[in-house]
Amino acid sequence: MGINVRIGKERVSLNGVPETLLWPLWNRAAEQKRKDRLIDDPMSADLVERIDYDFEGSFGKPNAGHAIRARVIDDALKLWLQKKPAGTVVSLGEGLDTQFWRVDNGKLCWISVDLPESIEVRKRFLPAEERIETITCSALDDLWIKKMPQGSEVFIVMAGLLMYFKEGEVRDLLYRLAEHFGESQIIFDVIPVWLSRKSLKGMKVTKTYTVPLMPWALNYGDYTWFNDIHPHLRIKRQMTYADPFPERMRPYSYLLPFQWLTNRLASGIVQLEITSPKP
Description:
Elements lengths: L2 E5 L2 E5 L1 H4 L2 H10 L10 H9 E2 L2 H5 L5 H19 L4 E5 L6 H5 L5 E6 L1 H10 L6 E5 L5 H5 L7 E5 L8 H14 L3 E7 L2 H8 L32 E8 L18 H7 L2 E7 L5
Parallel strand pairs: 4-5, 4-7, 5-6, 7-8
Antiparallel strand pairs: 1-2, 1-3, 8-10, 9-10
Helix pairs in contact: 2-3, 2-5
């Protein structure tokens, strides 16, 4: 579904995958109304107030999924930045995410890689920052990788992205990252196979919104797949969405005691580590 969104007096057109940038924005903004909120993100709440769009009509009632993902990745970034305070974070396909401001320590460098229409929205409606560089291209394009020296040590964020690619594209991207970068971290989310199949049949979230096709998926019990992509790439940690805050993910958290169900049905968050070859 294509839409026109009015932000203040501005109008932008979003279609397909770029349109999905409004979904996590909606859930992060709704999280700000809770006393037990998982993230502090007043910028997202402000953006939702400025955007003339029927968020609930399109995406339904708010849920905790995107806030949990944001919190987990925020915490991972903050931990990494304690060791590398002037480190470089590369965020692929971040849309209107406000993560830079949530984790900013005053020293980090941030590179935002996204499609032209998403970058346009981001530049118009989020503050300009000297330490944010934008690169307009697909995450699959070598352009952004070649802009960084071979062996660079970075933290790569790919939230809500890889499911829109094909399996071969995901494998190839992760392989190229492991080939190019030095000791680095990669974090992203993964949907299970049943959810991918549902999207390929035309998955309606509400009567007015159908999610884009999500070709790539991997069941939670099959994440060892990542360890076979490149000898310098390995899983550092993995979790389901229900693991960090089970009280916020009921009834899904009730699956946790049943590993065989979790392995088949759960969406997950994965952190990979690129290791340097031993001399």
